[in-house]
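Just wondering, does anyone understand what follows?

——
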Amino acid sequence: MKKALYGLKQAPKAWYAHIDSYLVKLGFIRINADLNLYFRAVQGMSLILVLYVDNLFMTGSDPLMIECKRELVSKFEMKDLGLMHYFLGLEVWKRSGRIFLP
Protein backbone atom coordinates (compact mmCIF):
# COMPACT_ATOMS: atom_id res chain seq x y z
CA MET A 1 0.00 0.00 0.00
CA LYS A 2 2.90 2.39 0.67
CA LYS A 3 3.91 2.04 -3.00
CA ALA A 4 0.36 2.89 -4.05
CA LEU A 5 0.25 5.90 -1.74
CA TYR A 6 3.61 7.49 -2.33
CA GLY A 7 5.21 5.98 -5.43
CA LEU A 8 2.67 6.41 -8.22
CA LYS A 9 1.04 9.29 -10.07
CA GLN A 10 -2.34 7.88 -9.08
CA ALA A 11 -1.39 7.86 -5.39
CA PRO A 12 -4.03 10.37 -4.21
CA LYS A 13 -6.77 8.53 -6.09
CA ALA A 14 -5.67 5.13 -4.73
CA TRP A 15 -5.51 6.48 -1.16
CA TYR A 16 -8.93 8.12 -1.40
CA ALA A 17 -10.57 5.00 -2.89
CA HIS A 18 -9.07 2.83 -0.16
CA ILE A 19 -10.00 5.04 2.80
CA ASP A 20 -13.41 5.89 1.32
CA SER A 21 -14.42 2.25 0.98
CA TYR A 22 -13.24 1.52 4.52
CA LEU A 23 -15.13 4.48 6.03
CA VAL A 24 -18.32 3.50 4.22
CA LYS A 25 -17.83 -0.06 5.53
CA LEU A 26 -17.62 1.39 9.07
CA GLY A 27 -21.02 3.03 8.59
CA PHE A 28 -20.03 6.56 7.59
CA ILE A 29 -22.11 8.48 5.10
CA ARG A 30 -20.22 10.64 2.61
CA ILE A 31 -21.71 14.13 2.31
CA ASN A 32 -22.43 15.09 -1.32
CA ALA A 33 -21.61 18.78 -0.77
CA ASP A 34 -18.01 17.86 0.15
CA LEU A 35 -16.72 14.41 -0.76
CA ASN A 36 -14.08 14.61 1.99
CA LEU A 37 -16.68 15.02 4.74
CA TYR A 38 -18.19 11.95 6.43
CA PHE A 39 -20.92 11.61 9.03
CA ARG A 40 -21.89 8.72 11.30
CA ALA A 41 -24.73 8.57 13.83
CA VAL A 42 -25.22 5.77 16.36
CA GLN A 43 -27.85 5.78 19.13
CA GLY A 44 -28.20 9.56 19.21
CA MET A 45 -24.44 10.17 19.13
CA SER A 46 -22.75 11.65 16.07
CA LEU A 47 -19.27 11.73 14.61
CA ILE A 48 -17.98 13.98 11.84
CA LEU A 49 -14.79 13.03 10.01
CA VAL A 50 -12.91 15.16 7.47
CA LEU A 51 -10.21 13.88 5.13
CA TYR A 52 -7.49 16.34 4.17
CA VAL A 53 -4.74 14.85 1.99
CA ASP A 54 -3.53 11.99 4.23
CA ASN A 55 -4.85 13.42 7.51
CA LEU A 56 -8.12 12.69 9.29
CA PHE A 57 -9.85 15.21 11.53
CA MET A 58 -12.81 14.20 13.65
CA THR A 59 -15.18 15.69 16.13
CA GLY A 60 -18.21 14.30 17.89
CA SER A 61 -19.07 12.19 20.88
CA ASP A 62 -16.14 10.69 22.74
CA PRO A 63 -17.32 7.04 22.67
CA LEU A 64 -17.69 7.13 18.89
CA MET A 65 -14.31 8.82 18.43
CA ILE A 66 -12.59 6.20 20.60
CA GLU A 67 -14.27 3.38 18.69
CA CYS A 68 -13.45 4.95 15.31
CA LYS A 69 -9.79 5.47 16.25
CA ARG A 70 -9.54 1.85 17.38
CA GLU A 71 -11.01 0.62 14.08
CA LEU A 72 -8.79 2.89 11.96
CA VAL A 73 -5.61 1.89 13.82
CA SER A 74 -6.42 -1.78 13.24
CA LYS A 75 -6.49 -1.16 9.47
CA PHE A 76 -4.01 1.68 8.89
CA GLU A 77 -0.66 2.68 10.34
CA MET A 78 -1.53 5.92 12.10
CA LYS A 79 -1.23 7.85 15.33
CA ASP A 80 -3.40 10.27 17.26
CA LEU A 81 -1.90 13.77 17.24
CA GLY A 82 -4.36 15.07 19.82
CA LEU A 83 -6.47 18.20 19.62
CA MET A 84 -6.17 20.38 16.55
CA HIS A 85 -4.89 23.89 17.23
CA TYR A 86 -4.35 25.20 13.68
CA PHE A 87 -5.82 24.20 10.32
CA LEU A 88 -4.78 25.85 7.04
CA GLY A 89 -3.38 28.80 8.96
CA LEU A 90 -6.52 29.34 11.05
CA GLU A 91 -6.51 28.91 14.80
CA VAL A 92 -9.04 26.36 15.99
CA TRP A 93 -10.36 26.58 19.52
CA LYS A 94 -12.80 24.53 21.52
CA ARG A 95 -15.87 25.69 23.42
CA SER A 96 -18.45 23.37 25.09
CA GLY A 97 -17.28 20.24 23.33
CA ARG A 98 -17.49 21.68 19.81
CA ILE A 99 -14.79 22.96 17.51
CA PHE A 100 -15.13 26.53 16.27
CA LEU A 101 -13.10 28.69 13.91
CA PRO A 102 -12.61 32.18 15.43
